[in-house]
Design goal:
Layout: E1 2-9, E2 16-21, E3 25-31, E4 37-44, E5 51-60, E6 70-77, E7 82-88, H1 91-96
Antiparallel strand pairs: 1-4, 2-5, 3-4, 5-7, 6-7
């Protein structure tokens, strides 16, 4: 069995860290009514599966990101004509360069 979780992200954090079951899938990102970023995640419900850390960064339009970041999804706010993009950050980048996450590779 599996479920779909709704997780609120902090767009102002350098990186959002989530602890998810192995085999999770990020489905989409969207703006909520209070202008927060919500990510929808499909996650297995098996109790015997190990967990893993997932590091996500919210990036606004025209902001550079390192080449190591992996694009996941975009969210568009039609009332503001604003879009943000969600990137998965490799753990090695988070551990090695915690203060340089906005630098371009």
């Amino acid at each position: 069995m599996k479920t779909i979780r709704q997780v609120l992200l902090d767009a102002h954090k350098a990186v959002n860290e989530l602890i998810l079951k192995e085999g999770y899938r990020i489905l989409k990102a969207e703006f909520s009514f209070n202008h927060s970023i919500v990510v929808w995640i499909e996650e297995p419900l098996r109790a015997d599966l190990p967990t893993e850390r997932c590091f996500l960064k919210v990036v606004e339009n025209n902001q550079p990101v390192p080449l190591a970041f992996e694009y996941v999804s975009s969210a568009f706010n039609p009332f503001d004509s604003k879009a943000v993009h969600l990137f998965r950050v490799p753990e090695r980048v988070v551990r090695e360069e915690p203060v340089c996450l906005s630098a371009v590779a």
